[in-house]
Amino acid sequence: xxxxTKTLQAAKFLGGMYRERARVLYWAHVRGDLxxxxxxxxxxxxxxxxxxxxxxxxxMLPTRLGNYTTTSHRLCNEVLRNRQFGPSPEDGSEDLANQxxxxxxxxxxxxxxxxxxxxxxxxxFTPRRMAGYAALVDEAIQRLLDQCExxxxxxxxxxxxxPLPIAVMTHLLGLPNDPERFRRLGSTIARALDGxxxxxxARTLAAADAELRVTFTELLEHRASEPGDDxxxxxxxxxxxxxxxxxxxxxxxxxxxxxxxxxxNAIGSGMxxxxxxxxxxxxxxxxxxxxxxxxxxxxxxxxxxxxxxRVAHQPVQVGEVxxxxxxxxxxxxxxxxxxxxxxxxxxxxxxxxESPAEHLAFSGGIHxxxxxxxxxxxxxxxxxxxxxxFPKIRQTAPITMRxxxxxxxxxxxxxxxx
Length: 418
Prior knowledge:
Elements: H1 3-29, H2 34-38, H3 48-56, E1 60-62, E2 68-70, H4 73-81, E3 85-86, H5 113-121, H6 127-151, E4 153-155, H7 156-161, H8 163-173, H9 179-191, H10 199-225, H11 231-236, H12 245-276, H13 278-286, H14 291-301, E5 308-312, E6 316-318, E7 321-323, E8 328-331, H15 333-336, H16 372-389, E9 394-395, E10 400-401, E11 410-412, E12 414-416
Parallel strand pairs: 2-8
Antiparallel strand pairs: 1-2, 3-5, 4-12, 5-8, 6-7, 9-12, 10-11
Helix pairs in contact: 6-8, 6-16, 8-12, 9-10, 9-12, 12-13, 12-14, 12-16, 13-16, 14-16
């Protein structure tokens, strides 16, 4: 490709990117479009006020692009479970759910490809496997907390929430445990889920994606010649017969990134809300067996994945709205989890809550999060161990929230244990 062609492509990319950013800013600030406000480049430290304003305008709210958002738990659940919707169009039309051009494997596949590939990865997350992972998770937790105890003051995110799930996922996939490297790569790719907002971000994303591709190409080649007792070895054994090389590479990248980015944020958010209400924390300290209930309330109250999108493959009635073919419905999972029609006092964090309906933090239907059992295990054991070992833990400075719309959680969270 010649220099002139590359320059022209870069100019077109930059022009499109900045036009889209200008449109979002215009619709957010001038036209008062609520979904555009959610998608401002700098993100929001608290989107829940916007969710409530959206809810006040009705369960199905049009967007500036002619699609819909919904804050309703019932309608979100309905859309996620309806086989007439999918995560990507079937006819090659514009994929609004993945503007960054990432290969998201299972997250963007429709049946039958989704069914075929999910079936390959599912055995890694069975109840029997979870029992085996429990010791691994606890070992990683205790090692990290030993280090935190020695420091006395530390950052929950950097010292605990981030390295824990990275240690678990790298072991599961047969990768070396390099928490700083994978935290950097995961954060870069996760940020791109909200789109590309600058040339610098585009370059950083391209470099991170290329680095991961090289890492997993080497891993897959190694496991093909020297299989081990890990998920990647099991998947490589099916290569070419059930799954292609490109599908396998995309799946393994997804398992790594999704396997720790969501858990990192859930641990951070959980500790944020537990320490914000000392009574809740003291309740957990007095009875650490409440940790699984605390994990579920964290996932309901402030889920790490705030939204997902589905496109209609044919006209579908959703509530009082007829969604046309190729129209999108953005299911606002975090808003649905605080739907007052479902949850009493939905804006109150309460680890003793008896929820009348399952939260939607792990999505729903055939795309229900494959790794949810592992995420629940890590969250429960993390909250229990923190309550048992550091009952006097306290926040020492303001929390910095990560920028972004799709994924939510603390970026920095300074604490002291006495």
